[in-house]
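Chapter review: from sequence to fold.
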Amino acid sequence: MTVSMSKQKIRFIINPISGTKHKDQLPSQIEAHLDHTRFDYEIFVSQYAGHAAILAKDAVNQHVDILAVAGGDGSINEVGTPLIGTDLALAVIPCGSGNGLSRCLDLPLDPVKALQVINGGHKRKIDTVDINGTPFISISGTGYDAKVAEDYSKDPRRGFDTYFKYILRNYITMKEQPYTIVMPDQTLDVQAFFISFANSNQMGYDFPISPHASLWDGKVDLCIVQKPNPLELPIMGGFMIDGMMDKAPKVKIIQTPEATIIRPKADVINLDGESVMMEKDLHIKVNPLSLNIICHETQK
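The token string follows.
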């Protein structure tokens, strides 16, 4: 006697404007390469800012099994955060500019290979992090990187060249600021060019900001970076490329489950690559193993 297994329901949400890749071929690639013996699927294309989050919340209400997003880190945040604390699993087809979370999880950047990972169906729980009650999944921060994210978000052009333009422009114009960091076991007063809050290890473009950050250790890495002078920039860049930012000069990395960052004033933060205005004080708290994600079976 054969036992029939019910298919899982998977919803694809495509962000048509993320990154630099054209996504016109994605529907046909999904039809050709998704395992139809395992999945029934539907495809939605987000039409405006916030639409993907609405589609994600609807997927939770419709008891979809897997929600797959084709986009970058900002799209992953928009689609993934409504899934926190639910049984629904997030899958990713990397189509962004930097693709930080995807690179951290070693997900293929090729859509067909990413679909093969989805077909494998291996789920793992990862941490998420709240900032003043607003969740993020990969990387957030305040200071220089937040200003870069703000300027990049206003430019219709995508890709590394555009991103690098704002990296350079804001390096020239911005200065360090004073911060107080309150943690359960210590309080620090620091001068920093920026502070990254790393749940994953990747800022994107294969630049690991915190090489030992883990998506499942119950901690967020606070990467406190002072401003390098022009002669120190190549040195710091070399440490980053080699995955050794924890050993770079003018960098201090602290792992903690919770912290409050007291800033000089209310300002924008970088929230998974998107610019968001937030209050002066940032309360950061890890939500351990709160999101299911589809990844390689061998992912450690």
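Two observations follow directly from the output. The chain has eight helices and 16 strands. The helical segments are 26-33, 51-61, 73-80, 100-104, 111-120, 144-153, 160-173, 233-241.
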